[in-house]
UniProtKB/TrEMBL annotation:
Taxonomic lineage: Bacteria, Pseudomonadati, Pseudomonadota, Alphaproteobacteria, Rhodobacterales
Top-rank taxon, per record: Bacteria
One matching Pfam family: DUF3726
Name of protein: DUF3726 domain-containing protein
Amino acid sequence: MTVSFNEVEAMAKKAARGAGYAWGMAEEAGWATRWLCARDLDGCAALAMALQEINGTKIRPISFENGELRVAEGAACPVHAGAALSDFAADLRQGPVRLSHVAVPMLLLPFAANVARRIGEPVTVRGNAFEAVVQADAASVTGDIAVVSDSVVVTSGGTLGDAASGAARATPTKADWATLGEFAHRTYAPATEASRLKGAGAGTNDND
């Protein structure tokens, strides 16, 4: 299936909200998913996996200390970790930023690209079995970005390899799109008796 990038961003934002993200973080998730899809990387699959891994109740605060972003327990949400990485962009010039136990690290790439734009040079993201180099509007990825990476190291510099080609539209699988739709559906208010009656027209028979 194919969908527009506007549809991707809207669905991703609503799905993240349905998974328990605050509106600001849901907007970040929508933007990040769109960024990946626009570079022919499967952002919809990445977000679907992340939402299933994190699923709202598991979102934990992230702290930054001694060059490391971490959560107290469990896997770090990549959207929250990415937003934190953006906040500490200047620190990347002083040395690597490390992240422990990150769910779906592919979702870090748009935020790393934002850091690259701010510091004016490429940024390299390395995990257990992958390496990605990003610039403000491009990314090259080698290896397998796993569902969870025990350790991710982000450094300034790097050489962009064969960048993922741009795409005109996103091509999520039906399964991933359905997963996002299920999370998005949680944002819909349940029907009340009054709303059902209003939607059906007059709720009583007014014939005398």
